[in-house]
Task: inverse folding
C-alpha cells in the first residue's frame, strides 16, 4: 500500500525541469499582487514558499524578502530550486524538504506563507492549515493561489475526475467557500479573496505530468460526454483545451 506522500514523491521525482520551464507556472498576474502585499510590510520579511515546486514564487519574492525558505515534499524539486537560485545569483533562498502537514519550523517564525498550486495535493489540509497558523507571526499573512472546486456537484465531479486522471497525486480542489470555512475555523481571517481564470493547453498539461495515453483518452472521453453546463463553465474546446477557476486568497493571522 502506498501513502499519499509516496504517490506525490513518485509523481514529481522526474518532472522538476518540466515545471521550471512551464510558462503557466512561471507567469501569472498574482505575482505582482504577492510582491505588492509583501512590500507593504514595515520590517524585513521572512517568507515560506510552501509546496514550492520549481520555485517560481521564491524567485519572485526573494528580491523583497530578508529570507525565503522553499519547502517541498519532492527532493528533485528542492534540488532544482537550490541550483536555479545559485545560477540566478539569488543568495537568500534556502531549501528544505518535507510535507505541509509537518512544518519543521519554530512557532511564529514567518511573516508570510505563500502556497501556489500546491494545496490540492495536501493529504490533510486541516492539519496543514494548523501548521501554517503555528509558524505565522501575529498579523502574518497566508497567501493561497490554487485551482478551486465548485459548490455545484456536477461541475465539481468533472473537475476532480480530470485532475485525478491527469495526476494520481491529486487530492482535492476546494471551493472558495470551503477555503473560507477551513481558514476561519483555524483562526485565520480573510483579507482579500479573488477569483481568476486560467487557460489550460491540454497537450502541455498532460505532457508536463507524463500522463499515460490511457488516462488522456479518459479525460478526452469525459470532455466529449460533458453536458452543456460543464462544457460552457470550463470553456472546453474541440482540441481538449479548457479553463480552470483559480482562487487568489489572502488570510491574516
Result:
Amino acid at each position: 500500500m502506498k501513502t499519499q506522500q509516496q504517490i506525490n514523491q513518485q509523481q514529481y521525482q522526474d518532472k522538476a525541469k518540466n515545471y521550471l520551464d512551464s510558462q503557466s507556472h512561471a507567469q501569472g498576474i498574482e505575482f505582482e499582487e504577492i510582491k505588492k502585499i509583501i512590500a507593504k510590510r514595515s520590517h524585513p520579511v521572512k517568507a515560506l514558499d510552501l509546496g514550492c515546486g520549481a520555485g517560481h514564487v521564491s524567485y519572485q519574492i526573494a528580491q523583497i524578502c530578508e529570507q525565503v525558505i522553499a519547502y517541498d515534499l519532492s527532493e528533485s524539486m528542492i534540488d532544482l530550486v537550490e541550483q536555479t537560485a545559485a545560477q540566478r545569483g539569488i543568495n537568500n533562498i534556502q531549501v528544505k524538504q518535507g510535507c505541509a502537514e509537518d512544518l519543521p519550523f519554530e512557532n511564529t517564525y514567518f511573516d508570510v506563507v505563500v502556497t501556489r498550486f500546491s494545496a490540492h495535493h495536501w493529504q490533510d489540509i486541516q492539519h496543514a492549515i494548523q501548521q501554517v497558523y503555528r509558524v505565522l507571526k501575529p498579523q502574518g499573512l497566508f497567501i493561497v493561489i490554487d485551482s478551486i472546486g465548485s459548490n455545484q456537484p456536477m461541475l465539481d465531479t468533472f473537475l476532480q475526475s480530470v485532475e485525478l486522471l491527469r495526476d494520481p497525486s491529486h487530492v482535492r480542489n476546494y471551493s472558495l467557500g470551503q477555503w473560507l470555512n477551513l481558514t476561519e475555523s483555524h483562526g485565520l481571517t480573510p483579507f482579500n479573496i479573488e477569483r481568476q481564470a486560467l487557460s489550460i493547453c491540454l497537450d502541455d498539461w498532460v505532457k508536463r505530468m507524463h500522463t499515460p495515453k490511457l488516462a488522456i483518452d479518459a479525460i478526452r472521453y469525459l470532455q466529449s460526454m460533458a453536458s452543456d453546463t460543464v462544457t460552457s463553465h470550463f470553456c472546453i474546446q474541440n482540441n481538449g483545451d479548457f479553463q480552470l477557476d483559480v482562487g487568489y486568497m489572502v488570510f491574516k493571522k
In short: Confidence is low (pLDDT under 50) at residues 15-22.
